[in-house]
Specification:
Structural class: alpha+beta
Shape: elongated
CATH architecture of the largest domain: 3-Layer(aba) Sandwich
CATH topology of the largest domain: Beta-lactamase
Distance between the termini: 140 Å
Largest sheet: 5 strands, mixed
Length: about 575
């Protein structure tokens, strides 16, 4: 018998010891092999995930440690007036930024020196430097290049400069609501800066570089994409006329005690806007304390009941439809429609069409309005742009409001004849008056300089336009509501408006006073529309003939002479003294 552990010598071989305990079970070998196979598979899957699926991400993370794509800012296009005078220009400035992820600890004395230069708190700068997760952070934007040079001299690794552009507005508050302004990032926020932002902004370029860990550029690794500068925008406005309108509107607002005012000057032959002013206003170069009331472009965005400046339009439509005749006489004594009384402040038992306009008779205008079919009258309002945006391309323009004709009651149609129960903007009223200056065609409004007039839309016949235009001259003559609108050497045609304001659905003792007119009346060159919101009641300032008409006259007189327009009344035109009796109109 062989003992366990004994040496066994096989036949013809070397003796060996038998030991049963050194042999592994077959199941254990399989388990070990499976574990090793799973681990190898996991490593292979991870390798595939990193090398194939996450390749772009990992390469991007690697590149982010040393490569940067720098933005090359485009120069924003200039805005000019129609004569090439600059209204908005971009000046180069510098912005200071840092890359905390690439920065080592910055000495306290350098942080303090940087804080003094940038007028910042040292602790705020230190907090930004300490955030190593960030690779880009602005320290201060749009500073003077000379100050940026002082920052560079501090030689703080990771702190760099970036060239930007700051917008400057030479005309300041005079052009504020038209030109608008840009934000810190150079994008338009208001006015033409906003509406033509894409044209003005251009296209930024880029530059791909390699930087060392201290933020210094080592080399360019990709071709530079050059920035494409913005285009120059030539507005239709004339800076000289704009200043004139601003000066006179400001003086008129102070004289009338109004809380706000607006004025627009149109080229009567092309529809181009030569001036547009709103008060109160603001300085776009200093916007630290802006108020909403200062930013409102009231001429385009404010809706109001126009009052009697509506009368020439309604009368023109009735005349064009052969419902009235020039010599026709109307009973203008007060009368009632249901419970409502329609009356005039003056007592003229009978007036012809010219007299209704000259005396601003609500009774006469309401009776003429009632001769029109409701649908016809509504369609006329629609044709001249009431209830629709004027499509000037200007942001925030109001559409006004005209209710559907099927809902009109007789009293509502009657009051629309003298501008109540309908809301418009001042720019809409100025545009509507182009039918009188262009032989019945209404022109589109433009805020950009035109090479040639845009086609108009025929509203009334040329004969009707000339007839009503001639009648409107009487408004500015003795016995009319606006003798203060006269201009020496020129025939002036226009219409006053005095309307109560609606608040909470009810009329209150607050007024909107206005005047819209044109000159020379025989061959119109300019249309001027003036509006005051809530003028004071002292000395009759609530009436358009007292508050708005004198502003119109001063702007029209200087504007015509500035543009070299020949007088059409060299010998028989007379200016009347300021104390000429006022023909008041019913509100």
């Amino acid at each position: 018998m062989t003992r366990v552990g004994a040496i066994h010598t096989p036949r013809g071989g070397i003796p060996r010891r038998q030991n049963q305990s050194l042999r592994l079970p077959a199941s254990r070998v399989k388990i070990v092999g499976c574990v090793l196979g799973v681990l190898f598979g996991a490593l292979l899957a991870r390798a595939i995930y990193l090398q194939v699926i996450k390749q772009d991400f990992l390469q991007g993370q690697g590149s982010a440690r040393y490569s940067r794509t720098l933005t090359l800012e485009a120069t924003r296009g200039m805005i000019t007036d129609r004569n090439g005078e600059p209204l908005a220009i971009s000046t180069p400035v510098q912005s200071i930024w840092a890359s905390p992820a690439d920065m080592d600890a910055v000495p306290v004395e350098k942080i303090n020196a940087l804080a003094r230069l940038l007028d910042l708190k040292p602790e705020d700068i230190a907090r930004k430097f300490a955030d190593k997760r960030r690779e880009f952070v602005y320290l201060k934007r749009q500073i003077r290049p000379e100050l940026a040079d002082e920052v560079v001299k501090l030689a703080i690794p990771g702190v760099s400069t970036q060239r930007e552009y700051r917008r400057y507005y030479p005309a300041g508050e005079i052009m504020a609501q038209v030109v608008g302004y840009t934000g810190m990032d150079g994008r338009g926020q208001e006015g033409m800066e906003l509406s033509r932002d894409k044209m003005l902004a251009g296209h930024a370029g880029s530059r791909h570089v390699i930087k060392d860990r201290r933020g210094h550029i080592v080399e360019d690794v990709a071709a530079i994409e050059r920035p494409r500068d913005g285009q120059t925008l030539a507005l239709s406005l004339d800076r000289r006329v704009q200043y004139l309108a601003y000066r006179e509107l400001k003086a008129g607002m102070e004289a009338s005690g109004a809380k706000a005012g607006g004025i627009v000057v149109l080229d009567a032959q092309t529809g181009e806007t030569l001036a547009l002013v709103n008060l109160p206003t603001y300085n776009p170069n200093n916007r630290w304390d802006l108020k909403p009331a200062e930013m409102r472009n009231r001429v385009l965005s404010d809706q109001y009941e126009p009052g009697s400046i509506m009368k020439p339009l309604v009368i023109a439509k009735a005349f064009d439809d052969h419902l009235i005749r020039a010599e026709q006489v109307f009973d203008t004594r007060s009368y009632t429609i249901g419970p409502a009384l329609i009356k005039d402040t003056h007592l003229y038992p009978e007036l012809d069409i010219g007299g209704i306009l000259q005396k601003s008779s609500n009774v006469g205008a309401s009776k003429i309005a009632l001769l029109l079919q409701q649908k016809t009258m509504w369609q006329f309002f629609n044709d001249i742009g009431f209830g629709r945006r004027p499509q000037t391309g200007f942001p925030g323009e109001a559409a006004g409001h005209v209710r559907p004709w099927k809902t009109w009651r007789p009293i509502e149609q009657a009051t629309m004849g003298y501008g109540h129960g309908i809301s418009v903007s001042l720019i809409q009223m100025a545009r509507a008056y182009t039918v009188f200056t262009n032989d019945g065609e209404m022109l589109p409004i433009s805020f950009t300089k035109l090479d040639a007039p845009l086609p108009g839309k025929s509203i009334i016949s040329a004969q009707t336009a000339r007839t009503i235009r001639h009648m409107m001259i009487k408004v500015t003559e003795p016995g009319g509501t606006a003798p203060r609108a006269q201009v020496l050497g020129y025939h002036v045609a226009g219409k006053t408006g005095t309307a109560l304001k609606l608040e909470g659905g009810r009329y209150v003792k607050k007024y909107v006073a206005s005047f819209v007119g044109f000159a020379p009346a025989t061959r119109p060159r300019l249309i001027v529309a003036v509006m005051f919101d809530e003028p004071g009641n002292e000395r009759g300032m609530i009436y358009g003939g007292i508050s708005a008409a004198p502003v119109f006259a001063k702007v029209m007189a200087d504007g015509l002479r500035m543009l070299g327009v020949e007088p059409d009344a060299p010998t028989n035109n007379t200016l009347f003294p300021a104390d000429v009796p006022l023909v008041k109109e019913e509100t």
